[in-house]
Amino acid sequence: MTMATLKTDPARLERFLTEIAAFGATKNGGVTRLALSDEDRDARNQLKAWFEAAGCETRIDRMGNMFFVRPGKNRALPPVMTGSHCDSQPQGGRFDGILGIIGGLEAVCALNDAGVTLERDLIVVDWTNEEGSRFTPGTTGSGVFAGKLDREAMYALTDREGLTFGGELERIGYKGMEDFDPRPLHANFEYHIEQGPVLERQGKTIGVPKGIVCLRWYDVEITGVPNHAGPTPMNERKDAVYAFARMASDIFEIGLASDNVVATVGEVHPSPNSRNVIAGNLHFTIDVRGWDEGETDRVCADIEKAVRTHAEVTGTTVDIRRTWEVERAPFHPQLVSMIRETAGELGLPALDMVSGASHDTVYINQFAPSAMIFVPSIGGRSHAEVEETSWADCAAGADVLLNCIIKTCNDPEGVEYA
């Protein structure tokens, strides 16, 4: 078997993925493994044990990012990085994020099986708090690593119970004592499920995204007047839920009418949230994404205008704040081509596309040549317990990842993806 056709072990990959899914397993086959929870800690412990058994060194930085390093022949050369995240959404799926880490682990094991030592170090990373469901914003660990988010500000983030990111990082025992900085990186790959329906509909096994769409997050606070549901006439109400309903409808319609921009209302928290009380307050979130930055910002401006207009019409007041903004991330064309060509060498049908979901690579891409590998999501479902990817597709994506790692890790000194 030549290096170009080296394959992973599908049965071992399935076993790793099945065993790691036990940490935070839900009764309907999904995973709730929120960042810095006990479940996250236990999964981290298992990853550390597996990687160290496979001969890797473990480094943990002050954000809790875990770096598993497989030494190469020339450790002075810039290393190759791959990986993703271990945390999940509440009642999320068992492939989102973790597939990229386990794919890296399986690549390490396949290289060990073949007795191969690569020229460069290979680093498999577990980035802290990609999802942002417990502590907002997401992609926290990679954002601090990239120098785009302030570490102390991230330590101060709180969850709904008032617990801080920094405090929980210490509690689970994953606050490293010093930073680990392997830069410059020679190349960076992230292997991930598509989280959409395109690959399945097109009958393709490997997705080759040219980049990640830009993203805008909003937090919106509507203030009305709480009152009794019975005696208060309809024409005298300042109902925060009614104002929200009008806003949410327009947000959907504005996204629907746009040129490939998506707009989503995610969290909705009315107060006092009682069946016989007119809501006096409501907090909700908006998520806007698109490949074209200008069109995305036009959609955002229309949404902001609509929210303010509906507040005025309903007699409520509104505070709309943009809480997170990430530029689109075009991937490195040479690495994108490498993924496409590697899929072809392995006889796997591939499709050029974009990533509608944000990933840690959105930050790593800003300072290192980067690209992603996608495999199909059955039914296009993700961030839900029904999330599913076939074991055969998981292994196919891992094979592409492994061979891209081999190619880049064996680049001689002086080769750069500029």
From TrEMBL:
Domain of life of the native organism: Bacteria
Binding site for Zn(2+) 2: 96, 131, 383
Keyword vocabulary terms for this entry: Hydrolase, Metal-binding, Zinc
EC number: 3.-.-.-
Cofactor(s), names only, from the UniProt record: Zn(2+)
Cofactor note: Binds 2 Zn(2+) ions per subunit.
Record protein name field: Putative hydrolase
